Amino acid sequence: MKLLLKLLLNAIAVIILSYVLPGVGVDSMTTAIIVALVLSVLNFIVKPILVILTLPITIVTLGLFLLVINAIIILIAADFISGFQVSSIWWAIIFSLLLSFLQSILHSIIKEDKKK
Question: Which stretches are transmembrane (predicted)?
């Protein structure tokens, strides 16, 4: 249940950001749920491999290269999903930053509701 709720919150964040950012597009709520699911799987499987392979450049850039890795993961997801479009790597970086920020806000709201 908790996993399903987090998935739906991530899908809502994807929908909100697709309305805010002109370089990102999502066709429907179903596509947003698929995007949230694919991003979760890619972050679980592909991201650790990319982080290990790019560890030297990540250390040299003091961790800022992780933003590029997140953008690459988003671009990979956009290639897999037909209803999800990201126009450039810059929009993917902005989308990644805002998605992380929005997810933390939404998840904190849910945690506060559970405490009451």
Answer: 7-26, 32-55, 62-83, 89-110
